Amino acid sequence: MARAENIVTSHTVEINAPARVVWEVLIDLDNYHTWNTFCPSIKCGLQVGDEVHMQVRNPDTGETVPVFEYLVACDPEQLLSWEQRPVPENMDAARRDQYITAIDANRCSYFTTDIFLGLNQDTIMLEHGAWVKNAFDQVALDLKRRAEELHGSGI
What we know:
Layout: E1 7-9, E2 13-15, H1 19-27, E3 41-43, E4 51-57, E5 64-75, E6 79-84, E7 92-104, E8 107-118, H2 121-152
Antiparallel strand pairs: 1-8, 2-8, 3-4, 4-5, 5-6, 6-7, 7-8
Helix pairs in contact: 1-2
């Protein structure tokens, strides 16, 4: 069980676009490179249980590394989640949840969390928690900018 101190939570941003538009940005995986500075590449069939192959960028070093996870929730306009599962060569685990909440017909809020699980959860939080927090805060801002641009152009 993850302890509260092993959870990274981004800032909550209010987005001047409908939840529908924000959702469309999140599931338009082919275009992540145009707006997502943390995860410029992601491949997934968007069906629960599908493999999720990502390239993520450490905002402190700029290094991009491959990450392999599984899609565990895909609730339109509300929740998109994937998780890293332990395997014999790497017993670490984590779950990322991205939350969209409609405020009204033209506004919503967004935030994301990452829960570090597994045998090394304390070490992972100590070594990676700060840069994951910085990256997730930037993703929230990147998503806000992209969704508002698309909404402003009539999408």
